Structure to design on (352 residues):
């Protein structure tokens, strides 16, 4: 009988992974359930878990997630709702969570600039991370609805308190004051790059623009209106705003940018205009994103330290059901992280 030239390849099984790794099928099941590791009490060592994952990769094994969800009540999914995916902050959050999730056999799904409530209604996830829910009552009502349905949530918010969900609290305003005070040690002509919404809302509430106005006033300084330039939530818009700021007749000697991505745009704009950072213009950002150390010169910024790794562990632990019950607040204080973009030894060129 002639041999079939296109034989059907047998799909790798849990047992095949166990045999390749030299462990029991129960051990493989533990690893892919995300319960492996000394902290889980399963008795599966990290080295053994790594061997199982390597064997699965060699065999191109993919667990049957639907069957596992029925058996364990877990989907193996982590959903991240990130309102601005191009922001270095969002990218750093996604990278850190994905790395931590992979260590536990979990999958990360990213919802970029969408309706997180509708998405969570359609896709099962063991935990959802929300970085922006809005400040209106509608957002809080949607959170309550998800909690009542049993959805585990970790919410990044500078105002919300835990209410059946965990809150990551990383209050930027004290850090923004640190940033302004750092510039005021050396400069009086300070410009501001900030989001359009921050300027609009500053009349009725505190935003990242508020410390700029308050610290300049406290120093007896009246900024030129042209020294405030706004951008929408794109890097191209931030770059254009920085070019406007640095092309004016009375160019500021320093820039307070309310995000790192706007600060990086300002450095790139300065390079394009032939200005030297920090010699002609100093730049400080807000957020302490990894990109702050990749730009030349390195960016002085403010933010929490080791934020991304620690936050990722909180999210993954909640997905695994580890630790205490939901409803904790996790605080991340901010500090100044000096870079070369505000080198205090550099001479300052003052506007006339």
């Amino acid at each position: 009988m002639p041999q079939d030239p296109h034989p059907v390849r047998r799909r790798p099984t849990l047992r095949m992974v166990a045999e390749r790794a030299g462990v029991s099928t129960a051990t493989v099941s533990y690893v892919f359930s995300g319960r492996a590791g000394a902290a889980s009490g399963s008795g599966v060592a990290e080295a053994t878990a790594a061997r199982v994952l390597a064997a699965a990769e060699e065999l191109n094994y993919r667990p049957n997630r639907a069957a596992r969800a029925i058996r364990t009540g877990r989907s193996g999914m982590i959903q991240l709702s990130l309102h601005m995916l191009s922001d270095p902050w969002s990218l750093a959050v996604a990278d850190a969570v994905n790395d931590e999730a992979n260590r536990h056999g979990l999958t990360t799904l990213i919802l970029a600039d969408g309706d997180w409530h509708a998405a969570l209604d359609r896709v099962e996830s063991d935990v959802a991370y929300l970085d922006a829910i809005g400040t209106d009552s509608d957002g809080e009502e949607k959170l309550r609805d998800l909690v009542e349905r049993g959805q585990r949530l970790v919410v990044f918010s500078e105002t919300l308190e835990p209410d059946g969900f965990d809150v990551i609290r990383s209050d930027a305003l004290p850090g923004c004051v640190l940033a302004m005070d750092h510039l005021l040690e050396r400069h009086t002509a300070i410009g501001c790059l900030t989001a359009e919404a921050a300027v609009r809302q500053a009349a009725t509430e505190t935003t990242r623009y508020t410390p700029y106005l308050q610290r300049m006033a406290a120093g007896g300084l009246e900024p030129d209106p042209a020294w405030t330039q706004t951008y929408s939530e794109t890097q191209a818009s931030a770059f254009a705003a920085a070019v406007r700021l640095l092309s004016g007749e009375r160019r500021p000697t320093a820039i307070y940018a309310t995000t790192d991505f706007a600060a990086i745009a300002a450095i790139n704009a300065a390079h394009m205009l032939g200005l030297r950072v920090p010699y002609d213009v100093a730049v400080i950002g807000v957020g302490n994103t990894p990109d702050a150390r990749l730009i030349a010169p390195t960016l002085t910024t403010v933010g929490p330290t080791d934020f991304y790794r620690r936050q990722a562990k909180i999210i993954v632990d909640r997905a695994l059901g580890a630790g205490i019950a939901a409803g904790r607040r996790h605080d991340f204080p901010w500090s100044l992280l000096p870079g070369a973009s505000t080198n205090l030894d550099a001479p300052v060129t003052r506007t006339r």
Q: What stands out?
A: The radius of gyration is 25 Å. Residues 346-352 have pLDDT under 50 and may be disordered. The first helix runs from residue 14 to 21.
